[in-house]
Every structure is written in C-alpha cells, then in structure tokens.
Amino acid sequence: MSFDELFEEAVKASERSYSKYSGFSVGAALITADGRLYTGCNIENSSYSLTNCAERTAVFKAVSDGYTKFSAIAVAGSGSGDFSKPCYPCGACLQVLSEFCEDDFTVVLSDGTHKLSDFLPMRFSEESMK
Ligand code: THU
C-alpha cells in the first residue's frame, strides 16, 4: 500500500470518530511489519480527559491482537471535512508509538512523510530506567 493510500485509509477511519465534544474527527491507519492494516479513530468521553486518540486506538487494537512491530502510521484530522492541514500526533500518542517503533518509523500526514524522531528526538524508554 502506498503512503497516499494509507493516508486515505486514515481519512476513512475518521468517519467512525466519536467526537461529539470537540467536533474534531481523527483517523489513523497503522501498518504492521508484516503488512496488516489496523485503523483507529478518536473516541471522546463526557469526562473529557478519558478521550482516546485515533493513533492510540489503532496501536492498542493491533497490540491486543498480538502485533507489536509496525512500519508506518498515517494520521488525518479535521473539524470541517478538509483534511489538507496536517494533524500532528499529540505527545501521549508519540510516547505510546515510541514504545513499539524505532526512530525511523514513518508518520504520514497530509503534508508528507516524517520520521518518529522528527517529533520525538529524545524519548523516555526502558533504557531511561537502567
Ligand atoms: N486527537 C487525536 O485523535 N489524535 C491526536 O494526536 C491529537 C488529538 C483527538 C483527541 C480529541 O478527540 C480531538 O482530537 C481534539 O483534541
């Protein structure tokens, strides 16, 4: 699957967004190392802080199915149906991705491809605790 197609999967996943409080729909499309596609959307809650972002939904779905190695994620977010503005992953999602992904992991946004290390050049990890 091309990065453009992966981004389109993220846009499609955003259609299932449960975002009645913010009105901002986010979709994520995650590719496992062996080529499986996992998608996720943001899931909000009346107790706002319990909201789960689209990226973490996709990662948790994959990990709970036994997949922990990934090659790329696409993220698409919009409050209007126009997905041309990049939706940068939040810090919590970057930290969750960093648990499973290396620095060169690909993040596909509407403005092109990035590496995980572009967003998170230094990270807290199990190495930090040794
Ligand atoms: N959101 C995501 O799904 N992913 C991010 O990386 C940033 C923010 C969601 C959370 C909330 O439902 C909405 O966007 C507005 O913050």
UniProtKB/TrEMBL annotation:
Zn(2+) binds at C53, C90, C93. It is an enzyme of class 3 (hydrolase). Signal peptide: none annotated. InterPro entries: APOBEC/CMP_deaminase_Zn-bd, CMP_dCMP_dom, Cyt/Deoxycyt_deaminase, Cyt_deam_tetra, Cytidine_deaminase-like. Keywords: Hydrolase, Metal-binding, Zinc. The keyword Transferase does not apply. It holds the Pfam family dCMP_cyt_deam_1. It catalyses: cytidine + H2O + H(+) = uridine + NH4(+); 2'-deoxycytidine + H2O + H(+) = 2'-deoxyuridine + NH4(+). Its cofactor is Zn(2+). The active site is at E55 (proton donor). Its EC number is 3.5.4.5. GO terms for cellular component: cytosol. Residues 1-127 form the CMP/dCMP-type deaminase domain. Substrate binds at N42, I43, E44, N45, S46, S47, Y48. Belongs to the cytidine and deoxycytidylate deaminase family. This enzyme scavenges exogenous and endogenous cytidine and 2'-deoxycytidine for UMP synthesis. This is Cytidine deaminase. It comes from Ruminococcus flavefaciens. The lineage of its organism: Bacteria, Bacillati, Bacillota, Clostridia, Eubacteriales.
